[in-house]
Amino acid sequence: MAGPRDRLTPEILLHAYASGIFPMAEDAGDDTVFWVDPRFRGILPLDRFRLSRSLARTIRKAPFRASLDEAFEGVVEGCADRETTWINPTIFDGYRKLHAMGRAHSIELWEGEALVGGVYGVTLGRAFFGESMFSRRRDASKIALATLVVHLAQTGFTLFDTQFITKHLATLGGIEVPRARYHAMLDAALSDGEADILSRPLPDPHSVVQFITQTSKRE
Question: 20 to 30 Å CA-CA from 165: which of 23, 133, 180, 200?
Answer without folding.
Answer: 200
